Amino acid sequence: MTADLFINLILAFIFGATVGLERESSKKGDPHVGGIRTFALISLAGALAGIFIVHQYTAVGIGVIVGFVLLLISNYVSEAMTTKDFGITSELAALTTFFLGLMVMIEIIPRTTTVAVLVSLVFILSLKAKTEKFVAGVSKHEFQAFISYGIIALVVLPVLPDYSYKVKDMPVVESILSGMGVSLGQFDNLDLINPMKIWVVVVLITGIDVFGYLLSKFIGDRHSFALTSFLAGFVSSTSTTQSLALKSKGAPFVNHLIGAAVLANLASFLQIFLLAGPLNPGWMLSIAPAILIMVLTAGVLTVYYLKRKETAVTDEAATQKEGQIFSLVPALKFALLLIIIKIVTKICLILFGKSGFIISSVLASFAGIDAIIVNLADMAGHTITFKFAFLTFLIVNATNLMSKSTYSWLQGDRRFARQFLFSMLIIIASSAIWLLFF
């Protein structure tokens, strides 16, 4: 018991000293911000309160806690009246440090959780300089953009129905077609639109720009888009590529945007392992070399574009609207395009059925290949052979990559579209190499 008490006291001292070290390094001569000694003593005071509570002197322990809180409040009021600075960051840090010492001693939560709280506290405190710089650089126009995105993602999205509306759910469409003498028949159950899923695409495209902007404030424009695109590529490489293509129209660093777009597609290649592996390990193992070749090729292209020297800014880039963070209209146009593609795809599936498997898969790949990969993994080795499934995968993957190039050409910078198309052709060619050995 004595040994545990001693260890906990040492931990409380270390925790407080760690917070104090961060405060010491950031106070820059401000006498009102405590340092290592102050926060070490605060944490030890919390540990002292914990000792009283553990040894059944609960009233004394509570008295120590109340006394510390009153001391903290009186100190805050005194300094606030003197300096006219009403910020409470240091006071909250002191209160959290006190309870860190208390938690270490009474051990009502796992020690790892206490350490996690300590790390989070130090991390948040260390962001002060960067957050101040970020806030100082945010204009009214940018703030309005954040509010607009908040409405798009947090207000509109949750209220949209997560339901796939079919032709039979649209009486107007059904009556119009009936008046034209068109019999719906098997098209009654044709899915037309799922409002929530379509709006997710809009949220993702605009969100990539917003998240990339926020990162750019901390790590710079060029690096922010690469990191954002890699993460977003696991969600939707198509939407990510579209977002970067839109951004290329007004960006002075097109090469970095191309590299980020290729990186997003690299992430989607890695995702194939997660989609097909659990469903059909045998088929996944047979096509793994082809996917690894694609990943390696995309990685080399990414490094090439990220390291490539940028050319001069175009007149179009020079006239870019200052402070513009995201564009909603192009995202809506892209969502509308996806709706049309999905409807056409489903019509083909109804008309052709299994006999048009490849045709329908190719058409479906314009909207994404995740569902196709799952379908192929489920059928490979059963309904179709491994080689036929692999051949179908190569075709739909090539179609998907070319469709992204088409989207880039329609709404992006021409240099971005050409270089991205060239990169996708190289990846497509590299993926076909394994077909020679299959």
Structure, described:
The chain is elongated. Strands 1-2 form a two-stranded antiparallel ribbon. It has helices at 2-26, 36-54, 58-83, 89-106, 111-126, 128-136, 140-159, 171-179, 195-219, 221-248, 254-276, 281-307, 315-318, 328-352, 357-364, 370-379, 386-411, 414-431; strands spanning 165-166, 191-193. The protein folds into 2 domains: 2-126, no CATH class; 140-159 and 194-436, no CATH class. It has 18 helices and 2 strands. The protein is mainly alpha-helical and 438 residues long.
Keywords:
438 residues; two-stranded antiparallel sheet; 18 helices; mainly alpha; elongated
Number of domains: 2
Average pLDDT taken over every residue: 79
Residue runs with pLDDT of under 50 for 5 or more positions: 312-323
Helix/strand structural class: mainly alpha
Question: What is the element layout, followed by pairings?
Answer:
Layout (H helix, E strand, L loop, with lengths): L1 H25 L9 H19 L3 H26 L5 H18 L4 H16 L1 H9 L3 H20 L5 E2 L4 H9 L11 E3 L1 H25 L1 H28 L5 H23 L4 H27 L7 H4 L9 H25 L4 H8 L5 H10 L6 H26 L2 H18 L7
Antiparallel strand pairs: 1-2
Helix pairs in contact: 1-2, 1-4, 1-5, 2-3, 2-4, 4-5, 7-9, 9-10, 9-14, 10-11, 10-17, 11-12, 11-18, 12-18, 14-15, 15-17, 16-17, 17-18
What is the gist of this entry?
The protein has 438 residues and is mostly helical. The chain has helices at residues 2-26, 36-54, 58-83, 89-106, 111-126, 128-136, 140-159, 171-179, 195-219, 221-248, 254-276, 281-307, 315-318, 328-352, 357-364, 370-379, 386-411, 414-431, and strands at residues 165-166, 191-193. The chain is built from 18 helices and 2 strands.
